[in-house]
Amino acid sequence: MTSPPATPPREVSFYDEDWRLEDIASDCEWAEEYRPGGFHPARILLRVSGQHKVSRAHSSELQDQIIDWRCSIPRYAVLEIMTAQSSTAFTELAILDHLSNSAPEDPNAQHITKLLKRFHHEGPNDNHQCLVFELMGASAASLVEELPENIPKLWGVPQRYAKPVAKKILIHALHGLKFMHKNGVVHGDLQPGNLLFSIENLDEVDQQQLEQNRTDAAIPLRRIDKKTDRWLETDFYVKLSDFGAESTVTPKGLRSPEVILKRPFGSSIDIWSFGCLMYEFLTSEPLLTVMTCGYDQEHRDKADDDHLIQLNGKIRPLPESIMRSWSRADRWYDLDHKQFCDFEPYKSLEQRFAKNKHPDIDDEEAATICQLIRVILVYDPAELLKQPWFFE
């Protein structure tokens, strides 16, 4: 008879020789986080805190696990179970409370996901803060893949929203940002995955119709040593979500110059991300592609340098203030800001947009959009909503 496995430490090692589970090729939370202080093993039909039943489970990113639940009253909502040692739970609660109490009658408030209640749940991996949100649908990142016109996925054929839908997503994101910034909150992680579509009222839908097949919902996790693991279990609206970050976690390609250079920042970092998303939604490709090939500082520095070089080539020449803050600028540019290297220059924003734009966008409109993207850093959300393109 084999001995039981040792209790894993609360901190996850980044060295694969210390991992206890086999690697899985799936877009889901990192399995090694199922340990004391980590994820709670939620499963279909699990009752949380005695009254909330899990109907569908969704994979998540970073520290949170998103699931649907149905409580004792006939109402569906979304339950977010924080990791037991999550440092973001208090931050997210404070932000949500602040936004909930900040002029709820403001029409822009309807573009922020609503917190309905909160409670704690004791599980095998410690005590978890649980947040209950209004029921929302798919994210802007995932829904585009399910549109009939994008199925089947074909090589070389872009997956994108129709222009009116893309425009409406952008408008609603701006309304949400306007409300947040007006009330002193910076999102810090504006990306398609945090733009959620509204969903029809499901209160009258039979629970069995919504319950996810347990086999489909489960991805088998197996220990490397083959032992049994004790810390696992076998007319739309768009709203901003995920307010729990204690620091900026913006995807690399959506970072503003001040985030790249670790300078003080404010709400303008959300506006910068919005400008990049505007290009992305209308072309189905990222404006700035930044890759990190390693975790050490040297690799991070190379990625940051590449990001700034792309900004200089695709958007506009970097100003003197950024060049002075960029400690490695002299590796790439002379005192007159001319490149040392003779690598092929990046195509400009206008050239790239003309090549990849939605077919419903003509040349005149393309010029307007590119001009708007170029000036987007100097506008706040309230000013951007005055731009005529959004309402044409």
UniProtKB/TrEMBL annotation:
<dbReference type="GO" id="GO:0004674">
    <property type="term" value="F:protein serine/threonine kinase activity"/>
</dbReference>
<keyword id="KW-0418">Kinase</keyword>
<dbReference type="GO" id="GO:0050684">
    <property type="term" value="P:regulation of mRNA processing"/>
</dbReference>
<dbReference type="GO" id="GO:0005524">
    <property type="term" value="F:ATP binding"/>
</dbReference>
<dbReference type="InterPro" id="IPR011009">
    <property type="entry name" value="Kinase-like_dom_sf"/>
</dbReference>
<dbReference type="GO" id="GO:0000245">
    <property type="term" value="P:spliceosomal complex assembly"/>
</dbReference>
<dbReference type="InterPro" id="IPR051334">
    <property type="entry name" value="SRPK"/>
</dbReference>
<dbReference type="Pfam" id="PF00069">
    <property type="entry name" value="Pkinase"/>
</dbReference>
<keyword id="KW-0547">Nucleotide-binding</keyword>
<keyword id="KW-0723">Serine/threonine-protein kinase</keyword>
<keyword id="KW-0808">Transferase</keyword>
<dbReference type="InterPro" id="IPR000719">
    <property type="entry name" value="Prot_kinase_dom"/>
</dbReference>
<protein>
    <recommendedName>
        <fullName>non-specific serine/threonine protein kinase</fullName>
        <ecNumber>2.7.11.1</ecNumber>
    </recommendedName>
</protein>
<keyword id="KW-0067">ATP-binding</keyword>
